[in-house]
Design goal:
about 240 residues, alpha+beta, Arc Repressor Mutant, subunit A, Chorismate lyase, six-stranded antiparallel beta sheet, elongated, Bact_HTH_transcr_reg, DNA-binding, DNA binding, GntR family transcriptional regulator, histidine utilization repressor, WH_DNA-bd_sf
């Protein structure tokens, strides 16, 4: 009977070698690894063994594997406080990365049922004109967050004349329209369709979804859908002793 010990030894040796390259900075965040078959040949193991090593490192959060896109060293995870409204540009900057915003769609319209459902809009959102926007936030050139947003033009008429091709709408709204109430709904989703394509992810890839609504009484101000690749983001909640749960 053939012993599995040599195979296990190869796995452990390569795992430690690749993990060390990431931790000591030889492979920086965003570094693209060689193809799996080339790595296997370089380390003198089967492709199956190398696949198991790369899969384990991805599960541990060290690597990101994209089907037909390659394997990359993972970026540090952004953190958002659950009870706050964070600026996405600031989230990226906090990681020491360069933030870019690309406007994908801008339209003044009256939203249909499908778009209202996508944004989980409240019943009192009405049927008046909204500014519908979609754009991609990038960190160091890699997709970071896909933003889909409706702005109530009755509450924020100045938004009608804003192009939002250079400034993300969330940044502008924070500086322009104070809000009195906000609600975040958090979900884990498998990304699909155009959202997957914009984020460069395979259909079904795990993502974090944040649905946010803000109000400035008596009107709703904006409803926004933020989709983050699962490996790039985490949420943080802080609690104090003695506070009600």
């Amino acid at each position: 009977m053939t012993s599995a010990r040599p195979q296990a030894t190869h796995h452990a040796r390569i795992l430690e070698d690749l993990r060390r390259r990431i931790l000591d900075g030889r492979w920086a965040p965003g570094h693209q690894l060689d193809k799996e078959i080339d790595l296997a040949e370089a380390h003198g193991v089967s492709r199956m063994t190398m696949n198991k090593v790369l899969t384990q490192l991805a599960q541990e959060g060290y690597l990101v594997r994209r089907r037909r896109g390659g394997t990359f060293v993972a970026q540090p995870r952004a953190q958002s406080a659950v009870m706050e409204i964070n600026d996405i540009g600031a989230e990226v900057a906090a990681l020491g990365l360069t933030h870019d915003w690309t406007l994908l769609r801008r339209e003044i319209t009256r939203l249909g049922a499908a778009e209202r459902a996508l944004l989980d809009m409240p019943a009192d959102a009405g049927t008046g004109d909204v500014l519908f926007l979609q754009g991609l936030h990038s960190a160091q050139g890699a997709p970071f967050c896909l933003e889909t947003r409706a702005i109530n033009l009755a509450a924020v008429p100045a938004a009608r004349d804003m192009a939002f091709d250079a400034t993300p709408p969330g940044t502008w709204l924070t500086q322009t329209k104070p809000w009195t109430a906000a609600r975040n709904t958090l979900r884990a989703i498998g990304v699909e369709g155009a959202e997957a394509r914009h984020l460069g992810l395979p259909v079904g890839a795990a993502c974090l979804l944040i649905l946010r609504k803000t109000r400035s009484e008596p009107d709703w101000v904006t409803c926004v859908r933020l989709v983050y690749p699962g490996e790039a983001h985490q949420l943080v909640a802080e609690f104090e002793p003695g506070r009600a749960s």
